[in-house]
Design brief:
The protein is α+β, with helices and mostly antiparallel strands and 313 residues long. Among the domains are: 124 residues, 2-Layer Sandwich (Beta Polymerase, domain 2), CATH 3.30.460; 64 residues, Methane Monooxygenase Hydroxylase, Chain G, domain 1. It has 7 helices and 7 strands. Strand 6 and strand 7 form a beta hairpin. Helix 5 runs antiparallel to helix 6. The longest helix has 68 residues. The two termini are 65 Å apart. The model has no long low-confidence stretch (mean pLDDT 82).
Length: 313
Amino acid sequence: MRRIFKTEDGTMHEKFDLQPGCWIALTNPTASEIMDIADAYRIDPDHIKAPLDEEERSRIEVEDEYTLILVDIPSIEERNGKDWFVTIPLAIITTNDVLITVCLEDNPILTSFMDGRVRDFHTFMKTRFILQILYRNATQFLQYLRIIDRKSEVIERKLHQSQKNEELIELLELEKSLLYFTTSLRSNEVVLEKLMRIDRIKKYPEDTELLEDVIIENKQAIEMANIYSGVLSGTMDAFASVISNNQNLVMKFLATVTAVMSIPTMVASFYGMNVNSRGMPFADSPYGFSIVIGLAVVLSLLVAYIFNKKDFF
């Protein structure tokens, strides 16, 4: 899908044709859309296709006619009715006339610009626009990291009550999300450091300050992801040990109960065998059955008491 935007008099307008100073937003573009833009602005089609591969690495490509900036952005993926956090590539291509963004899916980073929710935003100020996108990306990482932290706290509270494997699996998924975030943020950090050395990106003095702000936000996101990942890893190890210990206790309890419950069965089976009753205790007593059952119960309780003292339960 291709959409064209341009700021006029401080407001955003959607256009129907390509104009100098506009922003071309490509979301999961078709092959024909890719070729149209590539031919119009002399861009290598592979550079436009690059962000459509989820495994594409973050990087900068400086060409004669344009500059490609490829970074990772946070995204939410729905699996089994639950939201999980992943990262996907976003390409920003700047030419002499226009700025082009390419992404696999709609994302809140770009839609905030499309909806006019970003102040002091102008599509013709391409270098400023690039840095504003990167700044929004860093703040989006921070926002999702806070959500991950809150989700982990909710799951931990559930674990204190239920201690099921399902909650541990959810924590594992969050830990994987933090790993994705950390890896992507570090890749983005390399890109930002390279931007500091590209003069065409720092067109105005304010752009250098904004780039420094982006780097600071990105570093904060890396530190936060590392902290949350460490806390989450420790929590998972602790709860895994608790659950494993509880399972051992349950198995020991079941084995003990089985041993105790087998005593009446053994006694009753012995008396119920087809053997000569001569010499059998209580064989001639009219209350023999009740006496035997009573003795079996007393013996079971005695064994249970001994096991309890030994902390076998």
